[in-house]
């Protein structure tokens, strides 16, 4: 939960929830001190623009908040009007976590696409309905799922992954791992196998039609751009890092046998939760935020990395 002052809601207690029914709901709990006969009594607004489960919410400031969904999008909202004021696209799969910091004009997200995404928050004049924003930086992980993410006051990013690891990424050169450790980390990324489901079990990519290694000499067009090349008979996936101005090898592309998992809108659905709800609490008080604690089962190892 987060606590802030909301313009236009003086002395109100506003709760915002996101759920598996694809909705975000804004509630007013002012003066509530007993059971109610119907939730409609305290419901202020219901927001229905996401196309799948709402996985995470995060406060931007006194009147704006973010939401993340299984539809791979992140949306910004005005809590006082209930209007969407911006959309953030970059993730290619479910988005599981969001984190903002009052000390930095950015936020971070994580999800099922092996990545943390760093986004710059627009200025007050840049917010606009249906306006799309792109991510500033993509940080790849050597595991399929990045379950949750947090930002600490010094700007470091903490993420918990499906490989039972907690990793800390820092822009502070004095806190980064040695060059040898970073090389090992990139090797671990490159050794990851990226599965392409297909009816034949061999993947949908035709190796001979892929560009060769010479394609890596051309810069990418946008942060996080994906390119698969033919590297001496191997289908190898690379991702463009605008931050590092280079292509980063992210793994071999391999085929798989057809999956029996349920497919929704052409995508295989992983790790769907039947009941998933998050809350952001807006209250008229001043709160000094402490570092959020990540509670993850079996996450006992810590690595210092870079961003």
TrEMBL record:
It comes from the Eukaryota. Keywords: Cytoplasm, Repeat, WD repeat. It holds the Pfam family WD40. Residues 219-270 form the PFU domain. InterPro entries: PFU, WD40/YVTN_repeat-like_dom_sf, WD40_PAC1, WD40_repeat_dom_sf, WD40_rpt. The keyword Transport does not apply. SUPFAM superfamilies: WD40 repeat-like. GO terms for biological process: proteasome-mediated ubiquitin-dependent protein catabolic process; ubiquitin recycling. WD repeats lie at residues 47-87, 88-119. GO terms for cellular component: cytoplasm; nucleus. One of its GO terms (molecular function) is ubiquitin binding. PANTHER family: PHOSPHOLIPASE A-2-ACTIVATING PROTEIN. This is Ubiquitin homeostasis protein lub1. It comes from Schistosoma haematobium (Blood fluke). The lineage of its organism: Eukaryota, Metazoa, Spiralia, Lophotrochozoa, Platyhelminthes.
């Amino acid at each position: 939960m987060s606590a802030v002052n909301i313009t236009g809601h003086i002395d109100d207690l506003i709760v915002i929830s996101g759920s598996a029914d694809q909705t975000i709901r804004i509630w007013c709990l002012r003066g509530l001190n007993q059971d109610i006969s119907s939730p409609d009594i305290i419901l202020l607004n219901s927001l229905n623009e996401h196309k799948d489960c709402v996985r995470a919410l995060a406060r931007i400031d006194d009147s704006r908040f973010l939401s993340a969904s299984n539809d791979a999008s992140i949306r910004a909202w005005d809590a006082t009007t209930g209007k969407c004021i911006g959309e953030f696209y970059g993730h290619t799969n479910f988005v599981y976590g969001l984190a903002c910091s009052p000390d930095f004009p950015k936020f971070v997200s994580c999800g099922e696409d092996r990545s943390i995404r760093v986004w710059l928050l627009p200025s007050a004049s840049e917010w606009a309905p249906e306006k799309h924003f792109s991510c500033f930086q993509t940080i790849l992980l050597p595991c399929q799922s990045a379950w949750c993410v947090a930002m600490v006051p010094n700007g470091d990013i903490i993420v918990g992954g499906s490989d039972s690891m907690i990793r800390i990424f820092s822009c502070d050169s004095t806190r980064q791992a040695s060059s040898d450790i970073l090389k090992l980390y990139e090797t671990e990324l490159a050794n990851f196998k990226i599965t392409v489901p297909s009816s034949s079990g061999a993947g949908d990519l035709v190796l001979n039609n892929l560009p060769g290694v010479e394609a890596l000499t051309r810069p990418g067009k946008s942060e996080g751009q994906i390119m698969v090349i033919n590297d001496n008979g191997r289908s190898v996936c690379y991702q463009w890092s605008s931050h590092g101005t280079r292509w980063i090898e992210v793994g071999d592309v391999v085929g798989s046998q057809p999956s029996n998992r349920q497919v929704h809108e052409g995508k295989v659905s992983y790790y769907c939760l039947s009941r998933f709800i998050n809350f952001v609490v807006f209250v008229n008080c001043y709160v000094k935020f402490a570092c959020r604690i990540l509670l993850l089962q079996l996450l006992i190892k810590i690595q210092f990395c870079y961003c």
